[in-house]
Specification:
Blueprint (H helix, E strand, L loop, with lengths): L11 H5 L3 E5 L5 E4 L1 H7 L28 E6 L2 E12 L4 E8 L1 H20 L11 H18 L3 E10 L7 H13 L6 E6 L2 E7 L3 H13 L1 H8 L6 E9 L6 H20 L1
Antiparallel strand pairs: 1-2, 1-5, 3-4, 4-5, 6-8, 6-9, 7-8
Length: about 270
C-alpha cells in the first residue's frame, strides 16, 4: 500500500489506530501524529508536525525520537512511560514509531522492586544455610555489646573460616556441612551466623576468652571426624579461627574489626 508522506495523517487506519503512532519522512521530519499519541503526550499533533528531534519545542518530549525503546515523558503535567517499536513502510520512505502506554506496568514493576528490596532488608536468615545472616548478626552484636557494657558480663566473638586445601573451590555442599557441624556443637545461648561466603560468626555471651578457646579447640579437633564420616576420605579443607573477648571501650564495629584481625593473625602464624 503506497502512502504519500504528506497525507499519512489523513489515512483512516492511521487516525483510528488504538496505539500511539508517529510517522517520520525520509528526512527524519515528523509528518504524522495520530490522536492516540496526542492523548498520551497531552499535546496537539500540530506541535510535532514538521519538526525533527532537534526542533521539538518541548525538551520534555524529545525522548520520543531517542533511540531507547522505553520512553519517559516528563513535564507539562505529563509523567508517562511509553514502550516504542519502529517499523519501516517499504517503498514509501516512511518510518512509523509505535507507542504503547506502559506507565502503570512500569510503576507496578518499581513497586515490586521496592518490595523485594524491603524484604531483603528485613530478611534475617542466610538463604543457603538458614543461619542468621550478616545484617542480623550486626544488630544482635550491637545488643550484646550494649548488655555487656551495662552489666559487665563477658562476651567473646569468634570468626570461623573454611580454608580449602589444594586450591579446591568451596562448594555450597561444603558450606552446608560446616554450618550444620558448627550448629550441632554450640550451646543454646550461643549465636551462629554466616558472615560471608566462607566465614561464620560465633557470638558467645556469658563466655570468657578462656572458655571460648576450649570450645573452639573441641570444634577444631572434630573436623577430622566430620570429614571421615561425610566424605570417607581425608578432609579437603580445614577451619581457621579468630577469637576476641569484649573489653571496655569496644563497640560492636571495633570488636568486629579486632576479631577479623585475629583471624588474619591466625593465618599468618600458620603460614610461618
Amino acid at each position: 500500500m503506497a502512502t504519500n508522506q504528506t497525507n499519512i495523517s489523513k489515512q483512516a487506519w492511521f487516525k483510528s489506530c488504538p496505539v500511539g503512532l508517529m510517522a517520520l519522512n525520509s528526512q527524519g521530519t515528523i509528518c504524522g501524529v495520530n490522536p492516540a499519541l496526542e492523548a498520551m503526550t497531552g499535546l496537539s499533533a500540530e506541535l510535532f508536525l514538521g519538526q525533527s528531534r532537534e526542533g521539538l519545542s518541548s525538551a520534555a518530549h524529545c525522548p520520543l525520537l531517542e533511540k531507547s525503546d522505553l520512553v519517559h515523558l516528563q513535564g507539562s503535567g505529563v509523567d508517562r512511560w511509553l514502550q516504542r517499536e519502529t517499523r519501516e513502510l517499504k517503498g514509501d520512505g516512511i518510518t512509523l514509531l509505535y507507542f504503547q502506554d506502559v506507565t502503570e506496568l512500569y510503576r507496578l514493576r518499581q513497586k515490586n522492586e521496592q518490595l523485594i528490596h524491603r524484604m531483603e532488608e528485613l530478611s534475617i536468615t542466610d538463604t543457603l544455610t538458614g543461619l542468621t545472616n550478616r545484617r542480623a548478626l550486626t544488630r544482635m552484636l550491637d545488643a550484646q555489646v550494649t548488655r555487656s557494657r551495662r552489666y559487665q558480663n563477658p562476651l567473646t566473638l569468634a570468626l570461623v573460616e573454611i580454608i580449602p586445601q589444594n586450591s579446591e573451590t568451596i562448594s555450597d555442599e561444603l558450606v552446608l556441612t560446616v554450618s550444620n557441624y558448627l550448629r550441632d556443637r554450640l550451646r543454646w545461648a550461643d549465636v551462629l551466623g554466616r558472615w560471608n561466603d566462607n566465614r561464620f560468626m560465633l557470638m558467645l555471651p556469658e563466655t570468657s576468652e578462656e572458655a571460648a578457646s576450649a570450645l573452639i579447640e573441641n570444634i577444631s579437633n572434630g573436623v577430622a571426624d566430620l570429614a571421615s564420616t561425610d566424605r570417607e576420605q581425608a578432609p579437603g579443607f580445614y577451619l581457621r579461627f579468630g577469637l576476641v573477648e569484649w573489653g571496655k571501650g569496644l563497640d560492636s564495629a571495633r570488636l568486629t574489626r579486632q576479631v577479623e584481625h585475629a583471624l588474619d593473625a591466625a593465618e599468618a602464624s600458620m603460614a610461618s
